[in-house]
Amino acid sequence: MQKFVLVFTLAVCFSYCSENQNDHANYPDAVFVEPKYDTTPVDSFSAGATSADVARRIRMASSSYQDSLKKALQKEAELLKQKQLEEKLKKEVEKSVKKETADVQTSTAE
Q1: Do 42 and 49 form a contact (C-beta atoms < 8 A)?
Q2: What distances in angstroms separate CA 54 from CA 45, 50, 58, 80, 91, one per listed residue?
Q3: What's the DSSP call for residue 37?
Q4: Fewest beta carbons within 10 Å, which of 34, 46, 95, 96?
Q5: Over the Cα atoms of the chain, what is R_g?
Q6: Taking the chain, what is the end-to-end CA distance rounded to the nearest angstrom?
Q7: For every residue of 10-77, which 3-state class applies, written as one string?
Q8: What is the pLDDT of residues 9-45, one digit of tens each?
Q9: Alpha carbon 90 to chain centroid distance?
Q10: Do 43 and 49 contact (CB within 8 A), yes or no?
C-alpha cells in the first residue's frame, strides 16, 4: 500500500508540473507584441520634445509676463513724471516766494 501511495503521489506531481509548463506557454504575455507607439526616449531640449499645447501655454505665459513688465515700467515712468512735476512746482513756489520777499524788501527800503 505504501508503494501505491508513493507512485500515486509521484504521478500527481509529474502531471501537475507538466500541466503548469503547458499552461505557461499559453499565456498571452509570453508572446511579444510590438508596441503601437514610439518608445524611443526624447531629450527634453530636442525638437519635438514638447507638445503644441505645452508650447502654446509657454508662449502665453511669456507674453503675459512681458505685459506685466510693461505695465510695471509704465507705472514707474508715471511716478517719475509726478516727482518731476512736484519738483518743478516747488521751484516755482520758491521763486515766487523769493520774488515777493525781494519786492517787500525793496518797498520797505524806499
Answers
A1: yes
A2: 13, 6, 6, 39, 56
A3: S
A4: 34
A5: 46
A6: 154
A7: HHHHHHHHHHHHHHHHCCHHHCCCCCCCCCCCCCCCCCCCCCHHHHHHHHHHHHHHHHHHHHHHHHHH
A8: 888 777 766 555 555 556 656 667 777 777 676 666 6
A9: 49
A10: yes
